[in-house]
Amino acid sequence: MTVLIDEKLFRKESVVRKLDDQQLITLMQNDPEKGVEQAIRQYGGLCKAVTVRILGADHQQDIEECISDTFLKLWRAVDGIDLQKGNLKAYAASIARNTAINRLRSQKRVYELLPLEEDGLEMELDLESELSRKRNGEIVRQTVLELPEPDREIFIRRYFYCERVKAIALQMGLSPKAVENKLFRGRQRLKELLIQRGASM
């Protein structure tokens, strides 16, 4: 299946007739073309925002290809999505993030935003083998979900949705310094829990 991105699908979520996660999964399974189109209507704006933050707005072709790849990957993964572990919006954003980061790696471009596993933990995680990557990624996700609020939301905004510190601070009514402090303490806690839970080094 080929996913073609039509800019008309990127309407504001408020005007989109939304399906709940299970309905959307069922639609993608039974009618892939309509299902993917609906997924783009619901989450295309978010995935585009995540991709632009990572790749930069001046890389339009890369952005379009990453968004197309994101929804193709979402469709391919739909049978294995466990809604007990996260909602479809988070899955889509995570795929967009990883797809954009992989595009940067392949181009050997210098960039600021790193995957959480490699950013500030001062740990050498084994990210080479696919098995270790998946296992470590699952440990990171579970650990982040156990952080108290507002730390959890700050972590998700920064590392999964790739929002800037200043934007997070503005939206959450905090100072940028307070956000940075919470990210620092969260990284320290995350490092401790990763060691306790046996992340592969």
How would you explain this protein's 3D organization?
There is one protein chain. The protein has 201 residues and is mostly helical. It has 8 helices and no strands. It has helices spanning 21-30, 32-55, 60-77, 88-107, 130-145, 151-160, 165-172, 176-196. α1 packs across α2 (32-55), α2 packs across α3 (60-77) and α3 (60-77) crosses α4 (88-107). The longest helix is centred in the N-terminal third of the chain and has 24 residues, at 32-55. The protein is globular.
Write the layout of secondary structure elements.
Blueprint: H1 21-30, H2 32-55, H3 60-77, H4 88-107, H5 130-145, H6 151-160, H7 165-172, H8 176-196
Helix pairs in contact: 1-2, 2-3, 2-4, 3-4, 6-8, 7-8
Kindly state the percentage of residues in helix.
55-70%
How many individual β-strands?
0
- The helix-strand sequence is HHHHHHHH
Mean pLDDT level? 78
SS-based structural class?
A: mainly alpha
Low-pLDDT runs: 110-115, 117-130
User: How large a portion of the residues is in β-strands, by DSSP E?
Assistant: under 5%
Sum up the structure in keywords.
201 residues; mainly alpha; 0% strand
Task: Give a brief rundown of this model.
The protein has 201 residues and is an all-alpha fold. The chain is 63% helix and 0% strand.
